[in-house]
Design a protein that fits this description.
The chain is of the alpha/beta class and 473 residues long. It has 15 helices and 15 strands. The structure holds zinc ion.
Length: 473
């Protein structure tokens, strides 16, 4: 089956067909005005999963993500913290990398920054002005929406709606149409500014993305991603600017929008001051558990944050890891052919369930369900009397591989902590065997019961004692 992606532009799922052998992918990145919050984690982890799955499906992906490092809110924060705007941007860009690295978000191939491409932005605007798509007005420059008849094709807004719902309608005197939006903003006192043909000023937000995409990926790209809240006006405006600039269409073949994360019924956002930073969450929970939580529902759906959800994901992660544990002291014999075949079938069906789910517009809920099913089956087979460990090796390898596609490293903790614990359990079992030989039943039972509380199950048999990790609580 082929990979299908839901594109906001067509309003339906489409088979994914990149224009060339390198998938050109762009995502609107952070405005680094404060520490990223859990809503940002959902956005960038979701996009990271999309990217990883494309790579897993054999695509080469060129991935670009920008930083909007000059903006009204950065300037406001600069005044509040008493440090220059560029230092504010750097500080929170560093903060972004710290938490996203922890969450296993792969670094982009390129991270363009608005302030580093100002001459290109000016050249982009000059072309739009020269070709009649934009006009200067008292030091500002506006895009003239009526010159781009397809305006509204992404958000499907009628002219009236577009104006009414555009939230920030600039009532700038002299604008030819209320829908016209700023490409260049004349400098205000005390703000960062650059020289331009229209006087000192700074770029508007939308033109930054159009220019950075053109600079890094070219005129047309395969996937443009971002938060659902960017469809209008940001992405609508990007399309108008870029398609007017290149006289080509579509600017982006697939428009992918990530559902928003809410808290207490409202979108989690810096501006509403109802956010939990990723750092705060990582103080309480393991990064892999947070990641698992964030991809537990399909990326397009809205998600309501709950701590119980993260706790449940923590248990889910432990369940997946439990399948990697070997049964201690299990029989060492060559696997029987029927055992090998059964495991082959298990691996095949897990692979199919995972790929079918992920091919359906990257449905991570189905992808994870395939992983849980696989780990359940591994645990069931392992608990059978006399079952040798080795026969499950391909199933464990598949579990690790597929979890890795979702960016979850199941072995990380096992190698560092799990294997260290194994030696201590072995030691306790050995001491208990000696106690039993000396008929110290009370003490030997106590060791067994205490280990059980810790998630280690012992089984005594005439051949000796075997142990395995069991699920806790
Ligand atoms: Zn953008």
């Amino acid at each position: 089956m082929a990979l299908r992606i839901f594109s906001t532009l067509s309003g339906k799922e489409e088979e994914f067909k990149p224009a060339s052998d390198v998938v050109k992918m762009y995502v609107c990145g952070m405005t680094p005005k404060f520490h990223p919050h859990v809503g940002h984690a959902r956005l960038f982890v979701s996009i990271d999963v999309l990217r990883r799955y494309l790579i897993y499906r054999g695509h080469r992906v060129h991935f670009v993500q920008n930083f909007t490092d000059v903006d009204d809110k950065i300037i406001a924060r600069s005044n509040k913290e008493g440090i220059p705007a560029h230092e504010v941007a750097q500080k929170y860009t560093d903060s972004y990398f710290e938490v996203m690295d922890a969450l296993g978000v792969m670094r982009a191939d390129e991270y363009p920054k608005a302030t580093l491409v100002i001459p290109s932005i000016i050249a982009f605007i000059e072309k739009l002005v020269a070709e009649g798509y934009a006009y200067p007005l008292d030091g500002d420059v506006y895009f003239e929406v009526s010159k781009f008849p397809e305006y509204g094709k992404l958000s499907r807004r009628s002219e009236d709606e577009g104006v009414m719902a555009g939230a920030r309608v600039e009532v700038e005197a002299g604008k030819r149409d209320p829908r016209d939006f700023a490409l260049w903003k004349a400098a205000k006192p005390g703000e960062p500014a650059w020289e331009s043909p229209w006087g000192p000023g700074r770029p508007g937000w939308h033109i930054e993305c159009s220019t950075m995409i053109n600079e890094t990926l070219g005129e047309q790209i395969d996937i443009h991603a971002g938060g659902r809240d960017l469809i209008f006006p940001h992405h609508e405006n990007e399309i108008a600017q870029s398609e007017a600039f290149c006289h080509c269409s579509p600017f982006a073949r697939y428009w992918v929008h990530i559902g928003l994360l809410s808290i207490g019924g409202e979108k989690m956002s810096h501006s509403l001051n109802n956010f939990l930073t990723i750092q705060q969450l990582l103080e309480k929970f393991e990064p892999a558990a947070v990641r698992l939580y964030l991809i537990s529902i399909p990326y397009r759906m809205p998600m309501a944050y709950s701590q119980e959800g993260v706790e449940a994901a923590t248990k889910g992660l432990a369940r997946l890891r439990s399948a990697l544990e070997l049964r201690r002291g299990a029989e060492e014999r060559a696997p029987r052919p029927e055992e090998v075949e059964a495991v082959d079938r298990l691996v095949e069906s897990a692979q199919r369930a995972f790929t079918d789910g992920m091919d359906a517009d990257f449905n991570t809920a189905l992808g994870l369900a395939a992983l849980y099913e696989l780990s359940r089956e591994i645990n069931r087979l392992r608990s059978q009397e006399g079952y040798p460990n080795d026969v499950l090796t391909p199933a464990r390898a598949k579990l690790v591989e597929l979890a890795g596609v979702l960016g979850i490293d199941l072995e990380a903790q096992r190698t560092e902590e799990g294997r260290a614990a194994d030696a201590y359990v072995d030691l306790l079992v050995e001491i208990r065997t000696k106690l039993r030989a000396a008929k110290q039943w009370a003490l030997s039972d106590e060791i067994r019961d205490r280990l059980k509380d810790l998630g280690v199950a012992l089984e005594d048999s005439p051949q000796g004692t075997v142990w395995k990790y069991s699920e806790r609580g």
